[in-house]
Amino acid sequence: GGKIGCTPYEYVEGSKMGSVRLRHYYLPESIKSNGKVIYMASPLINKPELFDMAKGKSVVEAMQLKGYDIYLVDPGNPGAMDTDRGLDFYGKTVHDAYFDIMIARHPGQEILVMGYCMGGTLVLPYLARRAEERLAKGLEMDIKKVALLIAPVKFDDDSTGHGAMRAAIRKNYSKSV
After folding, report:
1. In what order do the strands lie in the sheet with 110-116?
2. What is the pTM of this model?
3. Predicted confidence (pLDDT) per residue in 118-161, tens digit
4. pLDDT at 142
5. Which pLDDT band, with edges at 50, 70 and 90, does 176 fall under?
6. Which residues, including other chains, have CB under 8 Å from residue 67's CB and lie 6 or more apart?
7. Are 72 and 38 in contact (CB under 8 A)?
């Protein structure tokens, strides 16, 4: 009879891409906004409720109590329509679209990023690319704070167990992506 996910949210209109959608956890009326937005990049395998387990054990709830507006990537339950989607979709296309939505909804507000597990692994290179794209346009980086939770990001040595992943990435790397 247990239920995970304690904080009310709604899916952002226009955010559906295949099985992926953007959740928005509105601040309760009793809490004053601190003018900052947190973008939570959840893993593709675990349910996104891992950020919102239960009352008193919820990252979403704790951040709301501090006045943050919360958005969370919900990968949904990928099906046949998603079989051809690659890491470029989950690691760039989704984030590009969702950052555009948040920036339009919260102009001038600081956006912070939190990535968990594979969500963090995918959002970190996205942010590096975003910084380079903005620099090339003469713009300052707009995302300045990132928190990664158990996100593997070091793939360049054999002691971490990521040697096989590193080899696959190097073998299949496409300069056009």
Report:
1. 10-11, 21-25, 69-74, 36-41, 110-116, 143-149
2. 0.84
3. 898 899 989 999 999 999 999 999 998 999 988 877 766 666 65
4. 92
5. low
6. 27, 31, 32, 33, 34, 35, 36
7. no
**DSSP SS3 for 2:** coil
Q: Look up residue 28 and give its DSSP letter.
A: P
* 94 token code pair: 């989704």
Residue 163 has pLDDT above 80, yes or no: no
Q: Which of 155, 161, 94 lies closest to 121, judged by CA?
A: 155
Give the separation between CA 61 and CA 70, rounded to whole angstroms.
9
Helices 118-136 and 94-105 cross at an angle (nearest 10°) of 70
Residue 89 structure tokens: 């979709």
Q: State phi, psi for 90 to the nearest 5 degrees.
A: -75, -25
What is the predicted pLDDT for the residue at 161? 59
